[in-house]
Amino acid sequence: MDRKAPDAARRSERSRRAIFEAALSLVGEVGYQRLTVEGIAARAGVGKQTIYRWWPSKADVLLDAFTADADVEGYAAGLPDSGDLAADLKAVLRATVDEFRDPAFQAPYRALAAAGAADEQLSARFVERLLEPGMRAYVERLRAAQEAGEIAAWVDPRIAAEMVLSPFSQRWLMRTGELTYSFTDSLVDTALAGFRPRPS
């Protein structure tokens, strides 16, 4: 009876997924400082040499694990455009509040933010893979609103997007206050009050 040779690609993919799951679960349990490649390997049931063959550090493992299932296609589809910019931004930011409150999201994101502060290359990859696609979606929605006359012509859509998102990130990262729907609704209202066309 013929036996098929083991599928190395499928085995490698299983190992990768196990490593990703181990890294994400462990960072939530022990924190980034106590997270180790050895610990990830033990949890995933692989040798640490397997991890080092694919990634140079625990930070790189965590980055790939966290961004593996990122909804980049969702970003590419853009933000909703109902014709009401304020309503659309509030809906998206409320959904973002829910995501950022999820412990499974918080632990790796905070770990990567801390690691990125000390590792410029890691930070650049994180921005490129996850943050920049989201930022572009906001910029494009704000530009569409500008073309529709909802935002003044002098407003730079990129700066406007950063003005909406930066206070959100600051509050969450620095824990300066609770992330709530009322906060994000107020954030949108305050920002748009400055972006609206002024009566001539």
Automatic annotation (TrEMBL):
<dbReference type="InterPro" id="IPR001647">
    <property type="entry name" value="HTH_TetR"/>
</dbReference>
<feature type="domain" description="HTH tetR-type">
    <location>
        <begin position="13"/>
        <end position="73"/>
    </location>
</feature>
<dbReference type="InterPro" id="IPR009057">
    <property type="entry name" value="Homeodomain-like_sf"/>
</dbReference>
<keyword id="KW-0805">Transcription regulation</keyword>
<dbReference type="InterPro" id="IPR036271">
    <property type="entry name" value="Tet_transcr_reg_TetR-rel_C_sf"/>
</dbReference>
<dbReference type="Pfam" id="PF00440">
    <property type="entry name" value="TetR_N"/>
</dbReference>
<feature type="DNA-binding region" description="H-T-H motif">
    <location>
        <begin position="36"/>
        <end position="55"/>
    </location>
</feature>
<keyword id="KW-0238">DNA-binding</keyword>
<keyword id="KW-0804">Transcription</keyword>
<dbReference type="Pfam" id="PF16859">
    <property type="entry name" value="TetR_C_11"/>
</dbReference>
<dbReference type="InterPro" id="IPR011075">
    <property type="entry name" value="TetR_C"/>
</dbReference>
<protein>
    <submittedName>
        <fullName>TetR/AcrR family transcriptional regulator</fullName>
    </submittedName>
</protein>
<dbReference type="InterPro" id="IPR050109">
    <property type="entry name" value="HTH-type_TetR-like_transc_reg"/>
</dbReference>
